[in-house]
Amino acid sequence: MSQDRTAPLPPGIVTGPAWGEPLPGSYAQAAAPFRPLFARIREHAAARETERSLPYEALEWLREARLTAARVPRKHGGLGLSLPEFFELLIELSEAESNLTQALRAHFGFVEHILASDPERQARWFARLANGAIAGAAWSETGEAKQVQFSTRLTRTPDGWRLNGTKFYTTGSLFADWIHVGASDENGESVSLTIDRRAPGVDVIDDWDGMGQRLTASGTSRFSDVPVEEHEIVAGRAPFAYSEAYYQLVHLATLAGINRAAANEAAALVAARTRSYSHAPAARPADDAQVLQVIGRVRAHAWTASAAVAQAARALERAERAVGQAHEAAAIAEAEIEIWQAQTVVSQLVLDATANVFDALGASATLRPQALDRHWRNARTITSHNPRIYKDRIVGEFAVKGTLPAGQWRIGVAG
């Protein structure tokens, strides 16, 4: 006999938010201390957005809670999370405040860079990272910058190495202790280097005016004869072997969290709403089948986005484990294909969901204090960083011709 579902379910029969089966092992234990913190961050997320109050305090909370050391190995003082665990935690952080995930994206990538570094560099940096150091990044250049070479220059002087140049999209650097920079050396070869954020000649400017990610300080950084320690110079452009796939998966985790936040906020607004329309099929929005359909679809998009991130994180973990092995290139290419496939679908799901929430609500949902529009603006900005139209083509070339992704992307003037 089937269970009677016309009556309300007894308390406790549904024990979770129904976002999917939790990761096995220690994830629940690792995530538990962060959830009250995420709730505190979420409480004032809309107000920070409308006031454009940069999240210095929230970032300090995350630093003190050691989320910034999530991937630092336990033996070096970090949390030692696996990649699937880490990306699940990023979804939860993004659900609370997606600007924080974006502001820390470069930092988390720098941690992966250190994980792939030599033991001497690891020893130096793991101690800093475990103690809460945060790294920003300065790689992109605007204007007439070339794809093949950085305009930012590293030169040797009688007083040591010096860095000169201007970068944009330096997300998170305003909040950081260190900045990881891409430059060209005296021979025109690409190098990466790390400098003290407060060194003489470093000027990080809060001039980001994008419609989304308003709290990430993703603006300009200028370097004028900045001193660089020789042991902080690393040859090559890519920070670590699976960097392309990794950085895009951070975006996908951020999008999944944005969708969850939009679904949760819209559902709460519908539940509290008493006003309705004379031509609506129910007196209360919470009993309106059409409104419930909108909320259900938005939530389904969030579930699908989260599931795609979880699957892609497993592919990235396989690529990480393959580094240094004979099948490294194949594993990285496979992870990239999986993540590009997810990217083209997830981005559209989240953009649709964050726009469609307004169909379940009245005009009051567009008032600025609600800041409900921030979810679409942030999602639209994130999906614009690395145009998804190219990912569709890359996946199609792989499917039809077996062509593998070309490796690290570059942006600038061709030639």
UniProtKB/TrEMBL annotation:
<feature type="domain" description="Acyl-CoA oxidase/dehydrogenase middle">
    <location>
        <begin position="149"/>
        <end position="226"/>
    </location>
</feature>
<feature type="domain" description="Acyl-CoA dehydrogenase/oxidase N-terminal">
    <location>
        <begin position="40"/>
        <end position="132"/>
    </location>
</feature>
<dbReference type="InterPro" id="IPR013786">
    <property type="entry name" value="AcylCoA_DH/ox_N"/>
</dbReference>
<keyword id="KW-0560">Oxidoreductase</keyword>
<dbReference type="InterPro" id="IPR009100">
    <property type="entry name" value="AcylCoA_DH/oxidase_NM_dom_sf"/>
</dbReference>
<comment type="pathway">
    <text>Sulfur metabolism; dibenzothiophene degradation.</text>
</comment>
<dbReference type="InterPro" id="IPR006091">
    <property type="entry name" value="Acyl-CoA_Oxase/DH_mid-dom"/>
</dbReference>
<dbReference type="Pfam" id="PF02770">
    <property type="entry name" value="Acyl-CoA_dh_M"/>
</dbReference>
<dbReference type="InterPro" id="IPR013107">
    <property type="entry name" value="Acyl-CoA_DH_C"/>
</dbReference>
<dbReference type="Pfam" id="PF08028">
    <property type="entry name" value="Acyl-CoA_dh_2"/>
</dbReference>
<comment type="similarity">
    <text>Belongs to the DszC flavin monooxygenase family.</text>
</comment>
<keyword id="KW-0288">FMN</keyword>
<dbReference type="InterPro" id="IPR037069">
    <property type="entry name" value="AcylCoA_DH/ox_N_sf"/>
</dbReference>
<dbReference type="Pfam" id="PF02771">
    <property type="entry name" value="Acyl-CoA_dh_N"/>
</dbReference>
<protein>
    <recommendedName>
        <fullName>Dibenzothiophene monooxygenase</fullName>
        <ecNumber>1.14.14.21</ecNumber>
    </recommendedName>
</protein>
<keyword id="KW-0285">Flavoprotein</keyword>
<feature type="domain" description="Acyl-CoA dehydrogenase C-terminal">
    <location>
        <begin position="251"/>
        <end position="385"/>
    </location>
</feature>
<keyword id="KW-0547">Nucleotide-binding</keyword>
<feature type="coiled-coil region">
    <location>
        <begin position="309"/>
        <end position="336"/>
    </location>
</feature>
<keyword id="KW-0175">Coiled coil</keyword>
<dbReference type="InterPro" id="IPR046373">
    <property type="entry name" value="Acyl-CoA_Oxase/DH_mid-dom_sf"/>
</dbReference>
<keyword id="KW-0503">Monooxygenase</keyword>
<dbReference type="InterPro" id="IPR036250">
    <property type="entry name" value="AcylCo_DH-like_C"/>
</dbReference>
